[in-house]
Structure prediction request, 454 residues.
Amino acid sequence: MRKKFVLRCVLCGAEIDGFGPWFEAGQRCPECGSDRADVVYRTTPAKVRDLFRRPANGLPGMWRYFDVLPVNDRKNIVTAGEGLVPIDRWEFLEEYARRRFQIRCQVFAHRQDDNYATGTFKDLSGSIVSSVLKENGIQNFVASSTGNTAVAYARYLTAAGISFYAFIPKNASLTQAAEIGCFGQNVFRVKGDYTLTKEIAMAFARKHKMPLAGGNFDPMRIEAKKTMMLEWIRLLGKFPTVYIQALSGGTGPMAIAKGCRDLAPVGLGGRMPRFILSQSSRCAPMAAAWAEAKKKKYPEGWEKTYPIYHNPRTGIATLAAGFPKTYPVLAPLVRESGGEILSFDEDATPLIARLVAFERSVRIGPAAAIGLGGFFEALKRGLLRNGDRVLINIGEGIRRAPEFLITMFQEKAEVATVDACRLFDRRGHRADIWNELEKRVMNGKTAPASRRGR
Ligand SMILES: Cc1ncc(COP(=O)(O)O)c(C=O)c1O
Ligand SMILES: [Zn+2]
Prediction:
């Protein structure tokens, strides 16, 4: 069968004949050893345009984009229907931008919070990675994870019949370990921090010659997240002008940029949105580097200067990337897009999540709350404009973070008699939430009177 794609090394331009030689070289370019490669598809513009037309090819979820996904044979697809999630219009945010800042924009939430396997956008990578491994006859896979990625991989690898060795730090929750182990996969809880966990996983993979889950440049992960952008075209018909996401290593924005490059010759896609990327205030090395570079007006080599935080004290494990290895690639991309890297107060995440739960009856996890916090931060800093179409990636739901759910819960009334049970006014609660947002996040006094008791 003629292969439908090749990998092209980003550094030396070498053409790599699919994932076979890529895995053989330890997930690197066999010529120069770089860990960055783009998947290049042998398809035609007409065929790509067809992907967005109905009826689809009959494959579930994001696999409707099979022609531009890195699997050759349909029989290798491992899927749980992930990726077919809605993009909702969140008018309550549009209304807020209009009333408070006189900005007229549209706001969309890409609802990755309810994906099948883990309730996060990690399902996309879980499905692609497992399918690629299956197609290449790989029987064992190793990953280090703060817990979340491993949960997604465990589920999909099990479906692919692949053995999985997950390394998680001992302080990751026992539930996380159980989520992996319940599939009959292997979990090692490492007595130490995440840095040690990664080291041991790497040494284990080397010792047993097994592939290790790649980093943020992993072409399998990039191709998976690229499908988010394909969904924008299908569901919105138009590109957003602003893309907001919580930021850890930046695979999301890099994948979107890759998708834009792919689609430009096809006449779809269009301009890359302005990337507004939000880090937790307790682990914001990229935001700190960015602020410094901006202050100095981006001097020569600015993108190579960044701090490294060892064992950052954030409670959001999925965003605890203290060593921002991808910054030299990501930051110029953000600059090219006209965007911004900023940080959002981690302590305000339960408030953001309560706001969304109240206004939309959607429950988001802490990393998604950092992302959404980026919207408010962007408004505050004057980064949004009239006419913007803002898309916020709600990358996770609450399912992954039950302990965060508890921080969202405020009324803890205990009663022993009927008379002790007070009535409540939900509208008053709305004013309370918005007022608290005003005070804690927007640093104003209280919400404008016009919004009270809506
Ligand atoms: C919900 C959520 N948002 C954002 C991110 C960050 O993704 P990226 O790798 O694009 O920085 C993650 C995971 O790392 C996540 O789980
Ligand atoms: Zn190379």
Observations:
- The chain has 15 helices and twelve strands.
- The radius of gyration is 22 Å.
- Confidence is low (pLDDT under 50) at residues 447-454.
